[in-house]
Write a structure and sequence with these properties.
Blueprint (H helix, E strand, L loop, with lengths): L1 H15 L5 E7 L6 H20 L8 E7 L4 H13 L5 E3 L4 H13 L7 E2 L17 E2 L5 H15 L4 E6 L2 H15 L7 E5 L10 H9 L4 E5 L2 H13 L6 E3 L5 H15 L7 E5 L10 H12 L6 H4 L12 H20 L5 H9 L26 E6 L2 E4 L9
Parallel strand pairs: 1-2, 1-3, 3-4, 4-5, 6-7, 6-8, 8-9, 9-10
Antiparallel strand pairs: 10-11, 11-12
Helix pairs in contact: 2-12, 3-4, 5-6, 8-9, 12-13
Length: 407
């Protein structure tokens, strides 16, 4: 009897042992002028992972998101990747933020380790991870910058705008957007009227009057911005201070709410409206669209158990106030939801080979946003739809009537 009791206690002790986590690694900006992008993407993803783990995870194995700060700079992103793969032993890489970091990491993922590493759902619409030789090691959820810029140009062209100016970050991200704009214009037998750049890491408090003058003197009648929220907000402020009332558009990477926060604060301070005639393209639907099941899930998650930024990464700088909702965190939430479904389908052991096989067999998966997601060996981008928003009542809302933007 005693031996049986001991055996039973041992068995119960073993059963009570927590199962090992399935670790996925993330490198993003958690400090610096672009930190809101990394923080909000992390928060949205972590919000879903927390809920998924509370429901039992992967047959008792929790999904653990291991995040590291790269400050939106390539060199730290490379070092983070090596540490995530070799020291942290992550199964997959996930949610990297930014074209300049991702494009430098891709060669490392392809040939820098014993076997290729897979990057899931980076927060960038650039082309390198969408085409050879890197398309096979990367899965994208979001539409590309080419698709975003083509949609913006098409709508503005229909309104009668022909003289396109572009304000862009002087790096791989900016050039990717520049190429998208150029291609969209070429399809209509047009070319860029003028362009102006800024350095990555520029702040909102800097002056962008020189860039405004370059574009205005060239006679452009609308501007496409391909940048991060601080610099784009600064450019918009300086353009409006010069009473330049042309439409100004931004692509999704800008971080709409973070840009709007800077502009609304400046509007109150200066006694004028810096948010007029703005257009932002988005790659996920509005988080205010309560018709969509995923929106209801996301809002409930952010309300009931708001995920916090990783304290070790953001705790030593100026205080960061998490956003209640944002397009960035909603995208992170959707990426995490899709990631967990792929892991569930792959089954143990959760290595990249099994996950890739499961992902490539996924057809018409319902994320809850009225746009089913499909992948295959030839198709590693899940969504192609682009949404358009403008500012009303101090928030970005769907842009359904473009007539108010006529020249």
């Amino acid at each position: 009897m005693r031996a049986l009791l001991i055996a039973l206690l041992v068995t119960l002790g073993v059963a009570a042992q927590p199962k090992s986590p399935v670790k996925i690694g993330m490198s993003a900006a958690f400090r610096g002028p672009s930190r809101a992008l990394g923080i909000e993407l992390y928060r949205g993803a972590q919000g879903y992972f927390q809920e998924f783990n509370a429901r039992g995870g992967l047959d008792g194995h929790p999904v653990e998101l291991v995040a590291k700060d790269d400050g939106y700079n390539p060199a730290p992103a490379i070092l983070n990747t090596i540490e995530l793969v070799k020291k942290e032993k992550v199964s997959l890489l996930f949610g990297y933020v930014g074209t300049p970091t991702v494009t430098r990491v891709l060669p490392l993922l392809k040939g820098g380790f014993d076997q290729p590493q897979v990057l899931m759902f980076p927060f960038t619409g650039a082309q390198p991870q969408r085409q050879p030789p890197y398309a096979d090691i990367c899965f994208n959820l979001r539409a590309s910058y080419r698709e975003e810029t083509a949609g913006l140009i098409d709508h503005l062209y229909t309104l009668g705008y022909r003289k396109t100016g572009i304000f862009y970050q002087c790096d791989a991200y900016g050039r990717s957007g520049w190429e998208g704009v150029r291609r969209a214009l070429h399809a209509r037998d047009l070319g860029l009227c003028a362009e102006a750049t800024y350095r990555r890491g520029s702040s909102f408090d800097q002056s962008y009057l020189q860039q405004v003058r370059i574009l205005r003197q060239a006679g452009v009648d609308h501007v496409i911005c391909v940048g991060s929220y601080a610099a784009c907000a600064g450019f918009i402020r300086d353009a409006r201070d010069q009473q330049w009332e042309i439409p100004i558009a931004n692509v999704s990477f800008v971080g709409s709410e973070s840009m709007l926060d800077l502009l609304t604060k400046a509007s109150r301070k200066q006694g004028q409206d810096y948010t007029r005639r703005l257009i932002n393209s988005q790659v996920v639907p509005s988080y205010n669209d309560s018709r969509l099941p995923a929106v209801l899930e996301y809002c409930r998650c952010m309300n009931n158990n708001p995920p916090m930024p990783p304290p070790k990464l953001v705790g030593d700088g100026p205080g960061y106030r998490p956003l209640p909702y944002s397009f960035v965190s909603f995208e992170g939430y959707l990426c995490a939801k899709l990631m967990c479904e792929m892991l569930r389908r792959a089954g143990p052991p959760w290595d990249s080979r099994r996950v890739v096989k499961a992902a490539e067999s996924m057809q018409n998966f319902d994320l809850g946003i009225e746009s089913p997601v499909s992948f295959s060996q030839q198709r590693h981008q899940g969504l192609h739809k682009v949404y358009f928003t403008t500012v009303a009542r101090d928030q970005f809302v769907p842009l359904e009537d473009w007539s108010g933007l006529h020249p």
